[in-house]
Amino acid sequence: MQQSLATSVAAPPEPAPDIVFACVHCATSFVVDAAAAGVMLQCQNCQQPTTVPLANDAQPAGNNAVIISDLQQQLKENDSQRTEITGYINQLSIQLHRWHLRLNSLNERQQKLQSQLTTARSDAAH
Length: 126
Ligand SMILES: [Zn+2]
Prior knowledge:
The chain has a two-stranded antiparallel ribbon with strand order 1-2. The chain has a two-stranded antiparallel ribbon with strand order 3-4. It has one domain (2-125). A hairpin with a 6-residue loop joins β3 (40-42) and β4. The chain is an alpha+beta fold. The chain starts with a helix and ends with a helix. The chain has helices spanning 2-10, 55-125, and strands at 18-22, 29-33, 40-42, 49-51. The chain binds zinc ion. Zinc ion binds next to loops.
């Protein structure tokens, strides 16, 4: 009993040749069973109806659409990383600007204190 259960889990039934196609609205790629050829489906990404192409003539276009979809996905990830890094740079730029302002005010204070010290010394000498 347990033996046969383990076997069926380890070897799931492989379906017939699938159709790879991309949504005509958002270019998200999907893989569907060959039985779904020509069927109108709702895109899981943009929720719009898109038609599954027939397997034969759609295969090259389908592969191309997968490449396009993959590239778009990589662009999207790249873009979100760019946004993240830009955010870090902006934060650190603001911090750097604050440190510069702080250093400037410390420099001004240093000059003022030194000038007061010089005055006090010359007063003491008299
Ligand atoms: Zn879509």
